[in-house]
Amino acid sequence: MPESLPMNGGNGVYSYSKNSKLLKEGLDVMMGMIKDAIIEKMDIKSLSSNNSNIASFHIVDFGCSIGPNTFLGMQHIIKAITHKHQTQHKHNQISPEFQVFFNDHVTNDFNTLFKALPLERRYFASGGPGSFYGHLFPSNSIHFVYSSYSLQWLSKTTKELMDEKSRSWNKGKIHYIGASEDVTSVYIAQFEEDMEMLLNARAKEIVENGMIVMILPGIHSELDHSQVAAGFNVLKFFESSLIDMINEGIFEEGLVDSFNVPLYVASPKDMTKVINKSGYFSIEKMEIIESQPILVEADAKSLIIHLRATLEGIFTKHFGIEIVDEMFARTMNKCEEISSWMKVEYKKSSQLFVVLKRKIN
C-alpha cells in the first residue's frame, strides 16, 4: 500500500482546513466547467442497467482531505446532476437519492471532516478510507467520480532517486524541478504507473457510461517540466533551507539525498498516454485552464503556510519535527526574497481539467 501521509488535520494554525483557500480559488474557476461537462456529457438513463430512473446515485470524491473544499464540490456536482436528471426525466421530477463517499488515506482526519458536514445537504455521507490507487468499492457501484487537486500525489518515491549508484540519484535536491532529465523521467514513469493502477481500479467500480472528472495542477505539453507555477517551484526555497542547515552541521547531507517530494505536475500529453494505454475510458474533454495569478507579493507567507498544511507530514516522517520546524521557520524568514522572486517568475496558475466516460464493454 502507498504511504499514508495526509494533509494536516484538526483546526489548528497549520491545519489544512484553515489553509486551503488557495485551492478553493482555483476550484471556483472550475465549477462552471464541471457543470457544463455533466450537462453535455452525462446520460442519466444510460447509467441504469434497464435504462430506467436511478433510485440511488453514488458519487465518490477521491482525496477529500478534511474540508471545506470537498463540500463545495459536492454541492455543485449534485446540483448539476439533479438538473440533468430533471431534463432527461420530465415525466418523473423526483430526483434520485445521492450517496457521497468521501475518500482519503486511512490516517486522514475523518473526524474533523464529518464534524464539518453541512447541515443543509442533499446527500447521505459515508467515508471510504484507503488509497485511490487500489480497489475501494464493489464492482459496477459508482456513477460519478470526482477528484480535485489530489492526483498530483504519487503513491511512492521511486528507489532510484535515492540510490547513489543510479543515474537518477537526485543528490542534494528534493524534487525533479531543476534536476536532471534522468530524475524527471523517473517521476514520469511513476506517474504513469500510478495512473494506470487508478484507472484499472475505477474501471471495475464505475458503471458503464459513468463519469470521472479530474482537476489537478497541470502544465502545457510543450513546456519544460521546470516551468510549473510558483506553488511547486517554491519547493526550492525549502530545499535551500535544508542545505543551509546541512552546511551549519545540524544534520548530515544524506538525509536530503534520501528524500524526494512525491508530487508530479502532469501535461495533457502525459494524461492522454496513460488513458489510452488503459483502454477503459473515452476522453470526453481535456484541456489546460489558466487562471489569473492568485498570489501577489504580500502572499508569500500565505503560500508557505499553505504548503506547510499540505507537506508537513511528509517532511516530518523523514526529517523529524525539530528539523521540519526549523526548515519552515527559515523559509518563512525568506518571505521578502520569495516575494521578489514570485513577482518576476510567477506564472498563471494552470489546472489540467479531464472528463472521462467509462466505455461499454
TrEMBL record:
GO biological process terms held by the UniProt record: methylation
SUPFAM superfamilies given in the database record: S-adenosyl-L-methionine-dependent methyltransferases
Keywords, ordered alphabetically: Magnesium, Metal-binding, Methyltransferase, Transferase
One MF annotation (Gene Ontology) recorded for this entry: methyltransferase activity
InterPro entries associated with the record: MeTrfase_7 (IPR005299), MeTrfase_capping (IPR042086), SAM-dependent_MTases_sf (IPR029063)
Family the entry assigns: Belongs to the methyltransferase superfamily. Type-7 methyltransferase family.
PANTHER family listed in its UniProt record: S-ADENOSYL-L-METHIONINE:CARBOXYL METHYLTRANSFERASE FAMILY PROTEIN
Name of the protein in its database record: S-adenosylmethionine-dependent methyltransferase
